[in-house]
Amino acid sequence: MKFDIFTLFPEVFQPYIDASIIKRARQNGLVEICLHNIRDWAFDRHHTTDDTPYGGGGGMVMKPDPVFSCVEDVLGSDFSIPLILMTPQGRPFTQQVAKELSDFPHIALLCGHYEGVDERIREHLVTDEISIGDYVLTGGELPALVILDAVSRYIPGVLGDPTGAEDDSHASGLLEYPHYTRPPIFRGWSVPDVLLSGNHAEINKWRHEQSIQRTAKKRPDILEKYKKEHIE
Ligand code: ADE
Predict the structure, then answer these.
(1) Which residues approach ligand 1 with their CB closer than 6 A?
(2) Is 132 annotated as a binding residue?
(3) pLDDT at 139
(4) 57-76 pLDDT per residue, tens
(5) What are the residue ranges of CATH 3.40.1280.10 in the chain?
(6) What is the tens place of the pLDDT at every residue in 183-232?
(7) Which regions of 66-188 does DSSP assign to beta strands (E)?
(8) Single pTM value for the model
(9) What pLDDT does 216 receive?
(10) pLDDT > 70: what percent of the chain?
(11) CA 148, CA 36: separation in Å to the nearest integer?
């Protein structure tokens, strides 16, 4: 899967994409990440990418011309590629949205900065808007990394585990069950017997019950949704 990322700060991405699972996915050719510096398409003497808002008020607004030029040069006229603006006004990012985006062979992420982007970018260039939560960050770079990471986990082969992202918290609509590894007793605290029993039917049953209990305790809001979808 290919990700084109449009940003004023490409250097923010490099350490993350050069580490751990995303690094391996890139090396194995499963994920391709192309970073594009919007400033390279600002053709005035000072390479200006932002300006003061019409009508006054504080902050700066990202100018439309470098953003349009950059996106059009890179994506050409392929309108099948979703171009997603990172913005606190976007639709909420969830596990479901991550899965949905992983069905595309190619997506593009546009990182806003400063107070926001000129509205014509929203109206005439982007095809989707996503928020990673109800808080405001200084730019769309961290949200783009969040999306890149969560989507990549759905690409077959990216996770070493053959069950992939299926068992994750939120994938089933419930939080994930507790995990244990060696040693069986640590500082007097034991691993639950059932996990050492070798009885996979019992283990699956225990894990499902734990998921329900955990979700009821920590996220009663999502348990209600799960019950509606699975029981009623
Ligand atoms: N840009 C600034 N804050 C954001 C958020 N919460 N989600 C996506 N993009 C953003």
Answers:
(1) 86-88, 112, 131-133, 135-137, 140, 143
(2) yes
(3) 96
(4) 999 999 999 999 999 999 99
(5) 2-152
(6) 999 999 999 999 999 999 999 999 999 999 999 999 999 999 999 988 76
(7) 83-92, 106-111, 116-117, 128-131, 185-186
(8) 0.95
(9) 97
(10) 100
(11) 15
135 is in an annotated binding site: yes
Q: What are the structure tokens assigned to 15, written together? A: 């350490």
Catalytic residues: 88, 115, 153, 168
Alpha carbons 91 and 128: distance in angstroms, whole number: 8
Cα–Cα distance for residue pair 3/111, rounded to 1 Å? 13
Mean of pLDDT values over 121-135 = 98
User: What is the predicted pLDDT for the residue at 220?
Assistant: 97
- Determine which helix (DSSP H) or strand (DSSP E) holds 7, and give its type and residue range: strand 2-7
CATH no. of 172-230: 1.10.1270.20
Which residue has its alpha carbon closest to ligand 1 atom 7?
131
**CATH 1.10.1270.20 region(s) of the chain?**
172-230
Ligand 1: nearest atom to the Cα of 134: 6
Counting beta carbons within 10 angstroms of the beta carbon of residue 26, is it exposed (0 to 12), middle (13 to 18) or buried (19 or more)? middle
Which residue in this structure is represented by tokens 């192309």? 34
Task: Give me the CATH topology for the region 2-152.
Answer: Alpha/beta knot (3.40.1280)
Judge contact between 67 and 37, C-beta under 8 A. Answer: no
Ligand 1 atom nearest the C-alpha of 132 is 7
CA distance 220 to 190: 28
